[in-house]
Amino acid sequence: MSVQDRIRNQVTANPVVLYMKGTPQFPQCGFSGVAAQILKACGVKDYVAVDVLADPEIREGIKVYANWPTIPQLYIKGEFVGGADIMREMYQNGELQKLLEA
Which domains does the chain have, with CATH numbers? Predict the structure, then answer.
């Protein structure tokens, strides 16, 4: 299975997927930490966090998959939402909460 197929399976089989550096409990970069905190603030307890540092193939493949150069990356219901800055903006204006509730 190609890395693109693996990513496609991850984002379509799970309602919320966060590709990040480290884990929600131990983020390995500030932006990944912010992304995990935003999901927590939205009340999301059950999501798949993929540590890209543990899998170099996924780390490079996810940038190609979304045509987005940075990590973290959030996917909701198979759709790419954005990185930490977009998540923060959407959280502040209430869009992210609506998207997660739907």
Answer: 3-101 (3.40.30.10)
